[in-house]
Amino acid sequence: MKVSHRFVPGSAVFDDGNLVSCAGLVPVMTLAEQTGLMRLLADKVRITAPRIKSGSANPAPKLGTLVAGMCAGADCIDDVDVIRSGGMKTVFGGVYAPSTVGTLLREFTFGHARQLESVLREHLVALCSRVELLPGADEQVFVDIDSLLRPVYGHAKQGASYGHTKIAGKQILRKGLSPLAATISTPDGAPVIAGLRLRAGKTNSGKGAGRMVAQAISTARAAGARGPILVRGDSAYGNRTVVRACLRHGAQFSLVVARNPAIDRALAAIEETAWTPVSYPGAVRDPDTGAWISDAEVAEIGYTAFASTKDRITARLIVRRVKDARFPDALFPVWRYHPFFTNTDLPVEAADITHRQHAIIETVFADLIDGPLAHIPSGRFGANSAWILCAAIAHNLLRAAGILAGDRHARARGSTLRRRIVNVPARLARPQHRPVLHLPTHWPWSKAWLALWHNTIGYSPPLPATV
């Protein structure tokens, strides 16, 4: 591709006040209004003792501005300016400057972040009522919990401290902040965020997990989950608090347990004949018997966890073992064991596969890191707590917009939705005072964009029942 005109230095001028840089925000923010986002923000977020008197004024439109900016790709506060260019302020009302939004965020404390977390949960329920975000929720729902460590730099970040993270398979210490996330998904639906909480980098991964799991289960029920709910997590969450929260709220669990002498005794008690080969990368079928020839095998045994406490519970200990790649030429196989504790009634192979699908939460982390969580922008811990919660609201909003756009956008990544659906240029015209957006001809995803448009702008809510 080459330039087909001969330009001169004066050929580029920023002078068109009718150009809209992110036309896809019109249906996306219409969907936000239809699901009551601004009302929830106005009702729940209240800052009664601000440091700066004007800082807490009108929190709902300011936070709405931030959510819209994140939907358009903002990963720092200054990027919010993208929705104030050209005709954007004509299309949208109540658009605030980045400095004003930043002033509000710096007023947030832990309690205010909890208010915003409540908005996240209730808005997710409203989205599920408006859009089929959780298809198949009558059959099976998964609640996944995990944490990540986002690196930060400098000496002015409140809460920043050194925590353990894994990079390229190696444990390292890294300075950062550690968000804890809970997601809800179904076998046919991509995960949405039910809870997101910022913590210091050195915080134990499982801190606050019991409460977050309980809230996520309640949110899933409120969002229409009628089938069984399975809570999945790694070894940081295989503890009494999380298991107790699952049982109290009627959910099943599938949680990795850390190796200890009791687990080792259970592993040693498994008969060699109990191990069953499973489908694994590199596995092949035996042409004679049809069984898997694999470097991975699974088995199960009964196990009583937390035996010395009042929360003792007996369930299944399912163990996957794989050949240790460090000893490829060993005379006898050297195995690595991966046990998890579960009370599901799935066959052992299916239980192992279902548990390993817990990794779907990593796709949510990848979306956030590729978007609003590319940076954790503020030096204040409360501001960063509000930032990540707005990022979660924007993630769920984009997920719902992708479903309304149809085709493969229902499971598309956030960056794909921003590129195809949100960041579409348009020219605003008003013939006879009727606003019209003129979009690019031959836009490759115009069909999906128009599907979203008609499902939001052309949406007629059902009439309330009359008595």
What shape does the CA trace take? globular
Low-confidence stretches: none
Tell me the helix content. 25-40%
The number of strands is 17
Query: Average pLDDT, to the nearest integer?
Result: 90
Beta content: 15-25%
- Let me know the largest β-sheet: 9 strands, mixed
Count of helical regions: 14
Which structural class do you get from the secondary structure elements? Answer: alpha+beta
Task: Using the CA coordinates, give the radius of gyration.
Answer: 25 Å
Strand order of the largest sheet: 7-6-2-8-9-15-14-13-10
- Taking the alpha carbons of the first and last residues, their distance comes to 65 Å
Describe the 3D structure:
The structure is a single chain. This protein has 467 residues and is of the alpha+beta class. Helices cover 34% and strands 20% of the residues. β11 and β12 form a beta hairpin. α2 packs antiparallel against α6. The radius of gyration is 25 Å and the shape is globular. It starts with 18 loop residues before the first strand and ends in an 11-residue tail after the last helix.
